[in-house]
Design brief:
alpha/beta, eight-stranded parallel beta sheet, globular, 44% helix
Length: 293
């Protein structure tokens, strides 16, 4: 029985699939590939932000499709705040940030999404300073209150920029926000890419981690800005053997999500390759495999 509890539920990031697929095709393919759930993306593009304005008929039709396939939309990657950040000097952008947050929580509640991943940027397209940082904290406090009321978990992502690129920094932020509905969503690729010790960081924040992104990266060096996306898992420098060993040692069984991007017609082969490599990391840690052979 305990052995069954050790296997992580594992999801697929929506952008690992071609955007040309319909929702039914995305659910069917994700199920066929052996995943437990799909992570829906609401990014800064007009197309995906428009999902926040879906009517109830559209929302519940998608939820019923998920039920038919037995494949929930367990989590939402809400990166729209990169364009509309809580830390912005522009009051109108901050108003949009809050509106996006309210709509995302309402959408998650109706779809059955349990966790909303927030982007850990105070600002992205404008200069950052102490004022942007303080406005971001205030925005997170308000977002957490909205989430508490709805019973939907917020989890801030450990990012690809210097502002929030470690779980150590999250712990400082977490003390400011101080809500049981404000947690961490570490991206092991981003943490590794910024040259932090991923295993130490995971051990530090284990009580506050809601979900984990599995992504590969190349590290930042004096001569390189690193590479934080578009790598197949196993092609970068992230030590997945050590990560799974740490998950076992800390008895951490939170859901995992493979974060990759469908860049060409080989997207399905890339997912299979990632699955095989992650299974080997599970074998190395003497954990149940994530995927059937």
């Amino acid at each position: 029985m305990y052995q069954n509890l050790q296997r992580h539920r594992v999801g697929l990031y929506e952008k690992a699939l071609p955007n040309s697929l319909s929702w039914e095709e995305k659910l069917s393919v994700t199920k066929e590939l052996g995943f437990d759930f799909l992570e829906i993306s609401v990014d800064e593009s007009d197309e995906r932000r428009s999902r926040l304005d879906w009517d109830d008929e559209t929302i519940y039709a998608l939820r019923h499709q998920c039920e038919r396939y037995g494949l929930p939309l367990h989590s939402m990657c809400l990166s729209a705040h990169r364009k509309f950040p809580f830390g912005s000097a522009d009051a109108k952008l901050r108003e949009q940030a809050l509106l996006h947050m309210e709509k995302a929580i309402a959408l998650a509640y109706k779809l059955g999404v349990r966790t909303i991943q927030l982007a850990g940027y105070d600002v992205y397209y404008e200069p950052a300073n102490r004022a942007t940082h303080l406005r971001f904290i205030e925005g997170m406090k308000l977002a957490a209150k909205l989430a508490e009321r709805a019973g939907v978990m917020l989890a801030v992502e450990i990012m690809d920029t210097d502002y929030l690129n470690s779980l150590s920094k999250f712990e400082v932020l977490n003390r400011e926000v101080n809500s049981p509905y404000f947690t961490a969503y570490p991206d092991v690729g981003n943490i590794s890419g910024w040259n932090y010790d991923v295993c130490t960081e995971l051990k530090l924040s284990k009580p506050h981690i809601t979900q984990i992104h599995l992504k590969d990266t190349h590290r930042v060096t004096p001569d390189s800005q690193g590479q934080f996306r578009d790598l197949v898992i196993g092609d970068g420098e992230v030590n997945f053997d050590a990560i799974f060993q740490t998950l076992k040692e800390t008895d951490c069984v939170v859901p995992l999500v493979i974060e990759m991007w469908a860049q060409d017609e080989d997207w399905r082969a890339h997912i299979h390759t990632a699955q095989q490599r992650l299974n080997r990391a599970c074998d190395h840690a003497d954990l149940p495999r994530l995927f059937a052979a």
